[in-house]
Specification:
By secondary structure, the chain is mostly helical. Helices cover about 70% and strands about 0% of the residues.
Length: about 90
């Protein structure tokens, strides 16, 4: 594999992706490998940041919806205990 200049068509299936990635990494110089690791870390950090932001947005959306429901229930004259039970805040 170290002498291949391009990926043979017979190995053009997804199952072989990781194998060829590992083979390419084995040919990296120390500096290239360090740069590769740094770029992978940046990608993972970016993906984790996006996932965290989505999770936070969903939570804020749930809270906003609970407030909206509570306001409607207050306008209907329900007691605070029932409103808390209905919105999951009590």
């Amino acid at each position: 594999m170290s002498r291949l200049t391009e990926r043979p068509a017979v190995f053009d299936e997804k199952e072989f992706d990781r194998l060829f990635e590992m083979a390419e990494l084995c040919n990296f110089t120390a500096e290239q490998f360090i740069n590769y690791q740094a770029s992978q870390k940046m990608i993972y950090n970016y993906e984790n940041t996006i996932d965290f932001a989505r999770q936070q947005g969903r939570e804020e959306g749930r809270q906003d919806k609970a407030v909206e429901v509570a306001e409607k229930l207050i306008s209907l004259g329900l007691p605070p205990g029932q409103i808390a039970a209905a919105t999951g805040t009590g």
